[in-house]
Write a structure and sequence with these properties.
By secondary structure, the protein is an alpha/beta fold. Among the domains are: 67 residues; 263 residues, Type I PLP-dependent aspartate aminotransferase-like (Major domain) (Aspartate Aminotransferase, domain 2), CATH 3.40.640.10. Helices cover 41% and strands 12% of the residues. The chain is built from 14 helices and eleven strands. Helix 1 packs parallel to helix 3, helix 9 packs parallel to helix 10 and helix 12 crosses helix 14. The chain binds pyridoxal-5'-phosphate. The site of pyridoxal-5'-phosphate has 13 residues, from helix 6.
């Protein structure tokens, strides 16, 4: 018999030692990676070993080789995309998840895994002010939360039209019309592809200068068709952070008997905050909602959540029965009734631990502090010459543009984004907004403070000071 206990102590010991060092250095560690694909292939590649290797040695080598290709996404000065870190409780609970390795598809695969999901889901429904009878599913991320919400929607609107999509599929079904704002997230389109609805079903409604769906054209779009209709609204635009006017959208869509799905991957969390809740006014009137715990709640990947005000439709769309499975009675939660997966990681532990450790006020504090940091970026950067902030900073997102004397603002902005990434004090990415190249700052980390903002602003302006389109023409 191999000495399992002795062995695993050595491997986990390596990991714990490295983790302590990594976390201690994180605030000052370079945020970007140092090795690219070529160096990493050289360090980690080669043929599959002919035979077994000592696993502690494998772990040591993996750490050594991978470290230079690790991005400081959990750093307080990582402002790229919309990416959260991991709080101590959620990180530790995530390690436990692998240790226990429950198959969290059925209650019998791990009762504790099922019950933590039940508890965390109810806490969330309550904290976010969603209808108390709402069902929920813990999925891999916002993509699958949108997919699952829209699958429930597809079931529901077709059932109302007398069509059971679960048995009859979409061939010959009544046409389902999907309406979304022009600035919806691309995962909405991708969900429609997965659902067999296709992207051409999508009727786009124009957005205003902040990316919010306009209400009058929505009303007109709703009038065009009186068959099964799904409206996709957004809470937190991925560029500007803006919120669609949810109350108005829900009220006029409801008149047409449409299902309203809210993509709140970023923004749903503000519903927990008294100061910011006005942004999600009317949220509770929708039918399904998607959000991400791995963004603003700072739970490790993978952690998305879907909520649904129609549990029967949610379960009809996702549930599965098979003879060899042991399904629980109504008093116990089989997760596979609410998720697209079958076998599944027990992702509820990390979510539960994060919420337990932070409490309602701790969650609100992170959200409000990130928004305050975004406003600080806005103030400091827009005070500098030749720098413009393009969006109304209502959330955690800031869009910045650097003006060039020669008029090529896009090239200068791109060069500065690249310069800042290479400089390493902080990391942020670029985007395109209304045809303009922009620097895009997203404050989503639980540890970011005003001091991190000041250090980053200083680095950005330093790079901007030494950067001109003529001197620095490459961009990527
Ligand atoms: C991030 C994001 C998504 C996708 O979420 P993932 O967790 O990356 O799958 C969807 N919608 C919006 C608005 C987002 O910001």
């Amino acid at each position: 018999m191999p000495d399992n206990v002795g062995m695993v102590q050595e491997e986990l010991g390596e990991v714990l030692r490295y983790a302590s060092q990594f976390l201690a250095e994180l605030p000052e560690r370079r945020v970007r990676w140092t090795d690219g694909a070529e160096e990493l292939r050289a360090a980690m590649g080669g043929p599959l070993p002919q035979g077994p290797q000592p696993s502690a040695e494998v772990i040591r080598k993996l750490i050594k080789a991978a470290d230079a290709g690790i991005v400081g996404t959990t750093s307080p000065r990582y402002f790229g995309f919309v990416i959260g870190g991991n709080t101590p409780s959620s990180l530790a609970a995530d390690w436990l998840t692998s240790l226990w390795d429950q198959n969290a598809g059925l209650f019998v695969g791990g009762p504790a895994a099922s019950v933590v999901e039940e508890i965390a889901g109810k806490w969330l429904v309550d904290m976010l002010g969603l209808p108390s009878h709402s069902s929920f599913g813990l999925v891999t991320g916002g993509q699958m939360a949108n997919f699952t919400g829209l699958a429930a929607a597809r079931h529901h609107v077709l059932a109302q039209a007398g069509w059971d999509v679960q048995t009859r599929g979409l061939q010959g079904a009544p046409v389902v019309r999907v309406i979304a704002g022009a600035e919806r997230h691309s995962t909405i389109d991708r969900s429609l592809r997965f659902l067999g609805l296709g992207t051409e079903t999508l009727r786009l409604v124009e957005a205003d200068d902040q990316g919010r769906m306009r209400v009058d054209p929505l009303a007109a779009a709703l009038e065009e068709y009186d068959g099964p209709t799904i409206v996709c609204a957004q809470a937190g635009n991925v560029n500007t952070g803006s919120f669609d006017p949810l109350r108005q959208i829900c009220e006029i869509s409801r008149r047409q008997n449409a299902w309203i799905h809210v993509d709140g991957a970023i923004g749903l969390w503000v519903a927990a905050s008294e100061e910011l809740r006005h942004l999600t006014d009317g949220l509770e009137l929708a039918d399904s909602w998607a959000t991400d715990a791995h963004k603003w709640l700072n739970v490790p990947y993978d952690s998305g959540i879907v909520f649904c005000a129609h549990p029967e439709s949610h379960q009809a769309a996702m549930g599965v029965r098979a003879a060899y499975l042991i399904h629980s009675d109504t008093n116990e939660r089989d997760q596979m009734d609410w998720n697209p997966e079958f076998s599944r990681r027990a992702r509820g532990f990390a979510l539960y631990a994060a919420m337990q450790a932070l409490g309602h006020s701790g969650i609100v504090e992170i959200v409000e502090r990130c928004c305050a940091c975004a406003r600080r970026f806005e103030e400091c950067l827009s005070a500098a010459p030749q720098v413009e902030v393009l969006n109304n900073v209502v959330l955690n997102q800031v869009l910045v543009r650097f003006l060039a004397p020669n008029g090529d603002h896009d090239a200068r902005t791109r060069a500065i984004v690249k310069g800042v990434q290479d400089e390493g004090t902080c990391w942020l990415s670029g985007s395109e907004w209304h045809g303009m190249g922009v620097m895009r700052i997203s404050v989503s980390n639980w540890q970011t403070t005003a001091d991190d903002v000041d250090r980053s602003v200083e680095a950005i302006l330093r790079v901007a000071g030494s950067s001109s389109p003529a001197a620095n023409p490459e961009s990527d």
